[in-house]
Write a structure and sequence with these properties.
The protein contains 5 helices and 10 strands; from the N terminus they run H-H-H-E-H-H-E-E-E-E-E-E-E-E-E. It is an alpha+beta fold. A 10-stranded antiparallel β-sheet has the order 4-3-2-1-10-9-8-7-6-5. Helix 2 runs antiparallel to helix 3. It is elongated. The termini are far apart. The N terminus is likely disordered. InterPro entries: Calycin.
Length: 246
């Protein structure tokens, strides 16, 4: 009957809440050690009337507590550090690579001395310039006017045609159309590859694998003339320019 029925067994349990968070500190890592975990489960089992298994896990926990100092420590969780750029600061402007006072020796107006200069035709022929233009270029007497500012060198050539290049002193590249009259098309890149009080060098790269050209001016000690050497591949032409005094 109802009076002979045993009362229902009382159920007891352990509620565990797991929290996620950042990297565990030393105290948290100690709580998460194998011994602590076994001890916690043993307490839960003992509270739930599973005395045999609870006692066994409690003994295992005590054993782990004894041997834990000789075990390798738990690895420290890695932290991810992210760097972000808050702002960019412009670098201070650098001084020009050339002292402009006094002016470099190559500044001035210069005229070709044809009596002691080689013809420019081999260079022009290698660049694909037609025959008539090559002959006409060597027939005229070229004049170079070179000026300099705090940031640029300007080379104005008066020959068969007038050509002007304005090149940054810091060696930055500039582009310009390939001179007409030859086989080349497109843009040529030019920059100053060497600048000193007595030497000025310009380097050009032509498009479509057409090679390069190095144009070097070296002023003689007296400052009244310079030697211009133009090199393209295996070809080299040397010309002499003399200063025109005003």
């Amino acid at each position: 009957g109802e009076h002979g029925r045993a009362p229902p067994a009382e159920r007891r349990g352990l509620r565990v809440r797991v929290h996620g968070g950042g990297a565990a500190g030393p105290a948290a890592r100690e709580l998460l050690s194998p011994a602590s975990v076994c001890l916690g489960i043993a307490v839960a089992l003992l509270a739930g009337d599973s005395r045999c298994l609870g006692t066994l896990l409690a003994g295992l926990a005590l054993l782990l507590l004894v041997v834990q100092p000789w075990l390798a420590p738990l690895p420290t969780p890695r932290r991810r550090v992210v760097f972000s750029v808050e702002r960019l600061e412009a670098a201070p402007a650098t001084a020009p690579p050339l002292a402009l006072s006094p002016p470099p020796l190559w500044v001035g107006r210069w005229k070709l001395d044809k009596t002691c200069s080689e013809k420019y035709e081999p260079i022009l022929a290698d660049m694909g310039v037609n025959y008539l233009l090559r002959k006409a270029a060597d027939a005229v007497t070229s004049t170079l006017i070179i000026t300099v500012s705090a940031t640029h060198v300007t080379v104005h050539v008066k020959a068969l045609v007038a050509v002007e290049d304005c090149l940054p002193l810091d060696g930055a590249w500039t582009t310009k159309p390939v001179p007409p009259g030859g086989r080349m098309r497109g843009q040529v890149r030019v920059h100053l590859s060497k600048v000193s009080p007595s030497e000025l060098e310009m380097y050009s790269e032509f498009p479509d694998g057409e090679g390069d050209l190095r144009d070097t001016l070296v002023v003689r000690e007296d400052g009244n003339s310079f030697i211009r050497t133009v090199v393209r591949g295996n070809l080299s032409v040397t010309r002499v320019f003399r200063r025109e005094h005003e």
